[in-house]
Design brief:
10 helices, globular, about 80% helix, MetI-like fold, mainly alpha
């Protein structure tokens, strides 16, 4: 208990002293995850809105595929991205392997199905409610999608937060394609795994404290947005 208590004391000291190495890892984690979430939201919101507002052959198959991809193991995604970006792969000439960009690509592949599926769930009921209104105005498909996305903007914020929560806590895929290189591709989750395996608990605990704090903040923000959306709905 003495060693664990000392490790916690050093961890809190690292956090509150704004240790440079610690916050370099945190900032890289935020940069990678936020970039991935923004890209995933652009793709996922567009796909979710299209599936909610349009009817076409193969639509159900696409929905089934999206839902199936939500459970795709991160290590499998990491392996596939590794094969694509390795020197012998089709995109090896870009030299993206073991860079933050490779980590962003892996996270986008992981998060986009989640964002698209949650977006579809949010917009389907809204489209059913607006269907007669859309028919009366004879709106174009793009106009329908824009209307649905705008009216569901608060719900979609919670979807984006869910995607960010998935991204910031991911370790398997980014470990494979990023390589966990110090000051280059080392983010919070991979650093925690490495420092724990080395027995350097202080840094791992400090990063864990920050990661838990971010997770709590995300969930609190999601709850606040949901309650705000309910108030607007009943206003």
């Amino acid at each position: 208990m003495g060693e664990i208590g000392q490790a916690f004391a050093i961890a809190f000291d690292l956090v509150f002293s704004l240790d440079r190495n610690l916050f370099a890892i945190v900032l890289l984690s935020l940069k990678v995850s936020l970039t991935a979430v923004i890209i995933a939201c652009i793709l996922g919101f567009g796909l979710g809105a299209g599936l909610a507002s349009l009817r076409f052959p193969g639509r159900k198959a696409i929905i089934i595929m999206i839902n199936a991809l939500m459970g795709l193991p991160p290590v499998v995604v990491g392996l596939l991205v590794y094969l694509l970006l390795s020197r012998s792969g089709p995109f090896g000439v870009l030299s993206l392997l073991y860079t933050p960009m490779a980590m962003i690509i892996a996270q986008v592949i992981l998060i986009t199905p989640l964002v698209a599926a949650l977006c579809l769930q949010s917009l389907q009921d809204l489209h059913y409610e607006y269907d007669e209104f859309f028919r009366s105005l004879n709106l174009s498909p793009s106009s329908k999608m824009k209307t649905l996305l705008w009216d569901a903007r608060l719900s979609l914020l919670t979807v984006a937060l869910a995607g960010f929560g998935r991204a910031i806590s991911e370790v398997g895929a980014v470990m494979i394609v990023g390589g966990n290189i110090n000051h280059v591709t080392r983010i919070m989750t991979t650093a925690i795994a490495l420092e724990t395996s080395k027995g350097t608990l202080a840094l791992a605990l400090a990063l864990g404290i920050i990661l838990i704090t971010i997770s709590v903040a995300i969930n609190a923000a999601a709850m606040l947005i949901r309650s705000t959306a309910k108030r607007y709905a009943h206003a």
